[in-house]
């Protein structure tokens, strides 16, 4: 039997966090290798473990997978979080891409100059409020189900909850104008595996701090 998936990334959210969320949701335990030194990254490059010289990399089912989107789709397909047919899958892809676009704005935020950070976070919150959250509110309304697609949980639901919590960290009352999203958040948060992942001490990461940013810069030589 294959061992636990092994996740290679930094000790921060970045492009690995949605993968952690999805594995936790489907109840798969995983190990993490945190890159802290340039030498660890160089060792991975030397053994040709990183196809495009990038992390995230996940060792799973005898493969070394890179490209976060491909990894997420693999996990979603394997664990039936990817819809019942092509039409459901493409909707899931669209909704996942929307939340990814929103969360990527947050991912780049810690790397900005201090003087740009405040203005940038205001713009991100504005985008969440005006562009992204109204879409998901309407999808829930039109679809009339507990989930974004079909009548069961999909990776789109998991990622939407992740995005909601990320925005709420910066704007606690963001959902006040979105009652269906508020109910969605409460519902999805109660799924036992997700509830466990939301507890302190889980492998969920919180907002990257200066140490995280400094580590990424050092390991990837981003100066
Ligand atoms: N499309 C890739 C992008 C991965 C990516 O940009 N990884 C960054 C760290 S978050 C990296 O390894 N950068 C090193 C480089 O590009 O040289 C994915 O989604 O996995």
What's this entry about, in short?
By secondary structure, the chain is an alpha+beta fold. It has helices at 17-25, 38-46, 68-78, 86-108, 114-143, 155-170, 179-189, 192-198, 210-220, and strands at 6-9, 31-34, 57-60, 63-66. The chain has a four-stranded mixed sheet with strand order 2-1-3-4, with helices on one face.
Can you give a write-up of this model?
This protein has 9 helices and 4 strands, in the order βαβαββααααααα. Helix content is 57%, strand content 7%. The protein has a 4-stranded mixed sheet, covered by helices on one side. The protein is of the alpha+beta class. Helix 1 crosses helix 6 and helix 5 crosses helix 7. The model has no long low-confidence stretch (mean pLDDT 96). A hairpin with a 2-residue loop joins strand 3 and strand 4. The protein binds glutathione. The site of glutathione has 10 residues, from helix 3.
Task: Pick out its properties.
223 residues; 57% helix; binds glutathione; single chain; alpha+beta; transferase
Number of helices: 9
As a percent range, the share of strand residues is 5-15%
How many strand segments? 4
- The average pLDDT score comes to 96
What's the main sheet like?
A: 4 strands, mixed
Query: Rg from C-alpha positions?
Result: 18 Å
Amino- and carboxy-terminal Cα gap: 43 Å
Ligands present: glutathione
Shape: globular
Uncertain segments are: none
Q: Assign a percent range to the helix content.
A: 55-70%
SSE string, helices as H and strands as E: EHEHEEHHHHHHH
Order of strands across the widest beta sheet?
A: 2-1-3-4
